[in-house]
Amino acid sequence: MSVTAAGGFVANGIACGIKESGAPDLSLVSTVDGRPVAAAAVFTQNKMTAAPVVTTDAHLRATGGRAAAVVLNSGCANAATGEQGLADAEAMCALVAGQVGCTAEEVLVCSTGLIGFTLDMDAIRDGVPELVAGRLEEPQGALLAADAILTTDTTRKVSVARGPGFVVGGMAKGAAMLAPNMATMLAVLTTDAAVEPGPLTEVLRAAVADSFNAMSVDGCTSTNDTVILLASGTAGAPGDPAAFGVAVAEVCLDLATQMVGDAEGHTKVVRLTVTGARSDDEARAGARKVAESQLVKCSWYGEDAYWGRIASELGSAGIELVPDRLTVRYGDLVVAEGGVTAPVDAAVLAAYMDQEWLEVTADLGLGEGRARVLTNDLTHAYVDENMGTS
What we know:
Elements: E1 9-14, E2 26-31, E3 37-43, H1 51-63, E4 66-67, E5 69-74, H2 82-100, E6 107-112, H3 121-133, H4 140-147, E7 157-163, E8 166-173, E9 186-193, H5 197-209, E10 215-216, E11 226-236, H6 241-261, E12 269-277, H7 280-291, H8 294-301, H9 307-315, E13 327-330, E14 333-337, E15 340-341, H10 346-353, E16 357-363, E17 369-376, H11 380-385
Parallel strand pairs: 5-6, 9-11, 10-17, 12-16
Antiparallel strand pairs: 1-2, 2-5, 3-4, 3-11, 7-8, 8-9, 12-17, 13-14, 13-16, 14-15
Helix pairs in contact: 1-2, 2-3, 5-6, 7-9
């Protein structure tokens, strides 16, 4: 069902008092026996890097890509907290290690919440024994763990994919500051396949490229973004390595899609595809430019298929564009062809724009380059949600 669907893992989530609301805020995924297994991670590209990201990266380097547990908290990002933040992140790992029975370096740590505030370490210190003692297998522990990492999310995000002889499961959080590359998001994936840290990292990076790195809610990249993949090896080496990569990518894309579908204040979820570019890189640059345009997002909120804004953003994206080769579609409806407005049934188009999920395609007509971005509209509710820290 989620992050413990793969054999060899347990999980839990509790409320320890980080959040004033009393909602769950401390989460754990670990191996059943506390022994380290192969691990891989991908992190934010924001240079204002949060303490847990620095700590997790350092631990993976120190162990050669091995980990026994991932501890996560919500309600405080532990970002922009200086030396105190680094000390607190290390302390979280040490506290969990002492209960799980591994070394501190074999524990990875993630945090999400408000930036610029230090962690309530007393609450965490008091909560860790209960967190570790209450670990459960599928599905109860996984659901508790998934709930405890949520911030402005309205629902938990979990996913499972099965391949020949192996399982991949995962949980994630994220509802805003979602932008390439990655988002204000945390994700933990597990598998029972036996894969060494090097190849595991390659598989994870490939999966992230077309999922978490291919979405944009608001164009803002967080300080804390982390995706972690643990491999217990209890099912043995995957007989079909390609199928394993497909399964990891499937879970990542499913979780990313759930995030955009839960974006703060959204009324539309948009799968935006740019085709016909000279290269995939140019298609990707064009898609991101359109996806992060406030004008385009506002037109989607207004249910207006105003293709001119899309064309304008593509024209300023620094990629090759020949206007009279441009075609824009909403679903199967061609709204622009040859760089000019195409006739379309207004009632049919209005009915299409009234849906929550939209498919928008811009074909540049220049080559084979192709890219997709998951995005959404910009609404009054998003502004209301993000006017302050309270």
